[in-house]
Each structure stands twice: as structure tokens, then as C-alpha cells.
Fold:
Amino acid sequence: MIEALKQRLSEHFQLTNLTIKNAGLAFLWVEKHELEMLLRQLRDFEGYTHLSFIIASDHIEKNQFKLTYMLHNYDTKHDLGVHVDISRVNASMHSIHPLWAQAWTYQRELKEMYGIDFPESPRVDEDFCLEGWDDMPPMRRDFDTVKYCEEHFDDRDGRATEENRQTMKVNIYPERGE
Amino acid sequence: MNLTHDFSPTPEVDLASGKYVKIWHGPQHPGITGNMSLELTLCGDEIVNCKTHVGYLHRGFEKLMERRTYIQNFPLVCRIAVPEPTFNEYLYSAGIEDLAGIEVPELAKWLRCLNLELMRLGSFLMWLGGASGAFGMSTVYQWTVTHRDYILDLFEEMTGARIYHMYISPGGVRAPLPDGFKDRCLMVMKKVEKLLYEVETTVLNNAVFKKRAIGLGVISSDMVDAYGVTGPNQRAAGYARDTRKDSPYLVYEQLDFDVITATGSDAFDRTIVRYQEMHQCVSLIRQMLDRMPTDGAFHTPTPNVLHWKIPAGETYVKAECTRGEYGYYIETDGSEYVRRVHIRGPSYTHAIAVMEKLVIGANIADVAGLMVSLHTYPPEIER
Structure:
């Protein structure tokens, strides 16, 4: 089924990769400029009418964000993840709120958490979770949580920590530690 | 297909005119599920604009998980949804097992499924109390929370904990059922069933409840896919979609149950669907107690968790929780740490985009009832 879908899509789009996880789940990669048209095709002609979520993962070593649009086809019971790689520098992506009304919420969160802009997306500049946040977007890999905490919060007595792995090895599982 | 939505700006509201009032509903309010706020603009009793505000419960779970080993995440994930932690345990484990190629023993699948259905019933009982309270019948809350406590007693026996069980771990479950559990569980099911008939008489057949809930917060059929509506909210709109049937997991294929639907798509029909699903839970739990194997392995040996590396890959696993599609997207890079985890909770869209749309035109007194009828948990929005 998914191979046939790939065949049909390949006639119109430049698909760079396809991974079939199992009978109910596959992932494919598409170029940034083709994403909106591909999603429209999948929604209107291939039955992928449900958008489960939109997320980003930070691939800092490649200087890229990987966006994932997870779709579901209720007729074939199939999940399809569509990946797009975009640059981390001035990260920006087309909004898909004309396709799925709920998309604006995800896009607003991605702007706050990763700094990825969706210029046409409604209310994209409004705060989502972090009111008044003026630091680096916190879900980026290079955001240092320890440093942030040390700069913004005071130490509290009785909160000394130990290195977790060492504690587990020495105190909790001494017979299993290597 | 037309799944688009009108995003034209809301009309300017001149607060100085004295015609409008702006109030905050939440973040601490009996009519709010969890901690979030609705910034409501009212004209008389009628709501003319609404903006949702979340973030009061943001603990950065997804970020925390990127910096912890696989086993360190195991006690973390159940904290994401307080009234329903088990689904997080199951999906995190299922995702890890999928990526690491671990096969779960048959008994563990039955025990996981039993745990999930008990959780569903406990969560629905809590919801039912909240829903009754939102419509002015607070006494019912006392009854349902008492019965939820009976289920927590069962969890305590089964897992050693009442709320955060940490029972479903990658590879299986932590323990088999204790002696005599089946009889005690059946006794609780009998009590719950009796309670449900009382609730039917006092709430579902109550003229005031019907008057207020029928026609409140109708989710139109063109909203369902456009807004990603799932679960009972979707089924009350007439869509026979349920992950347990559509993409069966654990032992659901071996159990007898139908997908429950309604057609009104309002607060009343959503209550009816959940009420019937509670009866269905009782039936599923009885079926499992009768059919599950009585012995066998309940956990597959896993690598030393101190040095557990999982091959690079990605997966998406999902389950039907009380509120709809609950899913975990997990990406690994071959190291001891997960590269990215995303938790897809149904409340994300139900409590924000759907709520903001449905509440327009509603009466201020019905906001709590409307919100509870969508059954949302703010922690799964903020993760």
C-alpha cells in the first residue's frame, strides 16, 4: 500500500527518502518548498485527513531542524510522518493553517520553543507557555538548562545532588555495575 | 473537502463603552479542569471572545527526557497526566520496545491492558464527578470519587502505588497479580456498576442537566478533522473511530466490544458516550480477568539499564486514552539518551483551538460545563 502511495506521490513530488516502520506507520522526506502541496495532496486525494501533531527536532550537528507532520488515514488506518529539513539559521516555514485549522497552535509553540517562524500563521507571536521569555528558545539543543537555572534561581539547602550514574552503580546496583 | 477555518480577526471590543466586561476564568477555578485560564470577553452573559492561556503546569518534560537515560525517564513519564498516568507508562515502554526490538510476554500484555482499562475507569469516574459538579450536582462528585478510590485500592494491590504506579516498564510489567485480586476486582466492578445506574437516574435523567447540556458546545462534523478532534468528543459527533479497534494493540483484538457513538455532538451526548464507555470498561475488565493466563513470564530480560543504548531510529506509538488519541513520537540516535520525545495529548487541540471556538456565544454560567464536557488535562498540553 505504502509503496503504491510512494509511486503516486513521486509523479508529482521529489521525495528524498521513505522509511516503512511497519504495516501501520511510515515516514517520508520532502523538500521544504513542496511540503504544502504534498500535504494538500495527502489530505484531499489520499485520505490522510487527520493531523496528529507538528513537531521539530533539533539536529544541531547538521545545523538543521527536522519538522515532522504526523498524519493519519482513518480508512486505511495508516500513520504517515512527513519530514522536512530546514536550516537552523533564520529558521522559517510556511504555515499550514489553511489546511488544518488546529495547526496554528502547534506553529505558535514551535516559534516559542525552537524559534522557528511561520510568518502567515495567526497569533504566531503570542506567548504560548512561557510568558515574557527573552532568552534563547529553550527546546534548542544548545540551550543550557543548568546555566539558566544557576543564573536565575538561588540554591536551596538540602538540595545537593550526586551524579546519577555513579549513585546507581555504587549504591543501588553494586553487583550489576560494570 | 473543506477543512478550512475562518481566521478573520475578532471585532474590536471597546471595553471603555461599558458594554463589555473582561474576566479571567481560571487558572484556579472549580470550573477549570487542571490549571489553565480562559480570558473571556462578555457582553451581558454572553461570551463574545475567548483566548486560552496555558503554561501554569509547564515542567518541560520533553526537554528533561532528552537529558536522562532511558530508565531514568521511566519514573518521569507517569507525572505528565496526573489522573491518567498509566497511558504514559505504556506508550513510553511500547516506543522503547519498538525501537529496541523487545518482545513483550503474553501475560504482560494482558496485565498492561487490565491496568489501562482500570485507569480508564478511574479517570472516567473522576471526570463524571467533575461534570456533575459543573452542572450543579456536587453530591455526585462524592460518590464517584469514593468509587475511584476503590479502584486506587486495586492499583495499590497490583502495583504498590495509588497514583503514579510505575508498573509498566520497558520489557513488561513489574509484578503479576497478587492472590485474590480477581475476586476483589470483580467486587469493585459490581459496586461501580451499581453506582453507574444511580448516576443515570440522578444525572443523565435530570431535567436541569438535560436542559443545560443539550445543544451546548456542538462540535460540527466539519470541525472534527480540521481541529484534530478525537476520542469521545469525536465519537459523540457520529464517527466510529477508536484506536483500540482501528489499530489494535495489546490484547484488544481478543476482547468483545463495539465503538460507542452518538449523533448530537453536544455536551449531553459526550456525557452519554463516556457513560456508556464506563459500562464498556467494566465489561472489558471482566473479560480480561476471565481470559488472561494465570502464569508465565511477565517481563522480558532487558540490557543493563545503566548502559542501555538503543539503535538510531524513530517511531510513533499511540493508544486510546479516555480523551482520545494519546501518542508518543520517539527519536533515537544510538546513544544512551533519547534524541527527541513528543507526547501527543488530545487536550492540546480540545482545550485550546476547539474550546476557543465553541465557547463563543455561550452563557458565562455554561463555560465550566462546556469545558468539562471536552474532558481536558492541561499538563498534556504543556509537557
User: Anything to note?
Assistant: The radius of gyration of chain B is 21 Å. The domain at 61-382 of chain B is CATH 1.10.645.10 (Cytochrome-c3 Hydrogenase; chain B).
